[in-house]
Every structure is written in structure tokens, then in C-alpha cells.
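HUMAN: You are asked to prepare a plain-text protein record giving the amino acid sequence and the C-alpha cells, both parts labelled.

ASSISTANT:
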Amino acid sequence: MCGILFSSMLNAQNNKITPEFAYIDEHLDLIVPDIRYAGNHNFVGKPVIGYEKPKAILTREAIKHLKQASIYFLAKGYVFKVFDAFRPQRAVDQFIDWSKISEDTLMKSEFYPGLDKKKLFALGYIATKSGHSRGSTIDLTLVDLKTGKELDMGG
């Protein structure tokens, strides 16, 4: 149902991800995908390198903990909405290259209004070495099952 497919996580012999990683949607039943880097609705305004399909990948250990948390929140009436999980370094490199093109402000009004894109790294919005590249970091929010609305996570 959700996720991100990265060719760097694939075993070249059988086109499957390596054993220490897994697709989140194969382990969590209730999840809302919103993998924006696989499409155009993100801060760079186009698909990001390494996000060939909207499939989220994490380490199996991270998925185990995410599943425990999802059970807890489901009992309270919430499900996870996933925006990003494993991110290949080549995607981060694309973010760095994008930040250097000052005239590329296609998505500024929605994603970084009032900010100079060259300062997004210094301000901590984007990292040159992302924790996502380890496969144990996830960007998500909670969605209320009754209303379908996202919770304000303050970020």
C-alpha cells in the first residue's frame, strides 16, 4: 500500500531488496502512503533520483518498532501517514545540486516560503548526509480514523 523502491537497495541477481531491509506495507496493514519524492509534489518539484516507485523501505528492526507503535496508535484511533523512509545518498546529492540553482524556486511558496533555499541545509531542513540513508529514519504523521485529518505534529 505505501513506500519507495530504491535500486541501490536491490540485489542485482534477483532484483529484490537486501535481507536486512523490507517494504513497510508488507508488514503494516493500515498505513497511508504519501511518498512525494516519487512524484512532483515535493520541494524540488519533480521526482527525486532513487524514488522510482512509491514504496517505503526500512530496516526490519525499524519496521518491528514501527509496527508496535502502529498497534498502539490504532487502539487510540490513528494510523500512520508515511512521507519518506530509506533515502539513497544520490537523492541527497540531488537536493544539494538543487539548492545551488537559485532561480529554481518552483515550489518555494508551498514548501519553503520566506526562506532562502541555500540556507535550508544550515537551518537543518535538509542534511548533506541524511539519517534516512541508514534505513532507520522515517517521516510520518498520524491520521485520525474518524475525521481522516492529519494531526498537527508541529513540524
